[in-house]
Amino acid sequence: MIKSVCWNLTSECNLNCQYCFRELNEEAQNFENNLVVLNNLKEMGVERITFSGGEPYLYPKILELIKEAHDMGFKCYIVSNGSLLNADNVRDCLRYIDKISFSCDSTKAYINDHIGRGADSYEHVKELIPEIRKYYGPDRLMIDINTVVTSTLLNDLKEVDVMFKKINSELSMYGISNWKIIRFYPLRGYAKENKDLYWIDDNIFARIKEYFESVESFVNVDVRDIEDMDNDYIVSPCGILKQSYKGSEMVIKSLRGGANRVQ
Question: Per the domain annotation, does 171 fall within a domain?
């Protein structure tokens, strides 16, 4: 029985990370069709949905869909770059969320600018997390940090050490549940197109993993290789249930309703 899925609600994103494996050629479902998907997931016995994208907060009626999922008894997680959240809307945007994972691939502005994530992306998340904690404590809302390891980012242990120290000194006091260090996975989209640019060597990734196993941290660090992400269940923007395995995806079935256009 499938207990959890990652639902890539939309392929739309307001950033341009060239190592991202979001879907590029699928249109998002309208709200009514996504309610059909939601009901089918419930009938299948799914208990947890991670809403992702693209950037999930670009999906029209995202808050209504999350509320529907919450009211149906799902645990609701979300993965976001955080750029559309701010002090004025964060309380409402996270009202029915059990965990939010922020994508932070570097703590340095010039690196974030170079990779397409936006120069101020880390600083924005750093300022946003205290705003979240004004309303939602660690027992109510978990916060994770996700970092993708590519050949242009954390392939230098000095850069790894800098980021480690900043995450621990600047974010750990806010009750970060996990800092996930995720190996670049050329599964689809830009990631697959640009594999040769961003693939990280086995030996370098092994050194990074050894580094995190050897240091003491205030934040729990979870280092994930590709095999740790295999067999994940994904719902694509057009409502197709898939399973990832060794760099490819197997289509399981359609969960969708009728037309595929967002209203």
Answer: yes
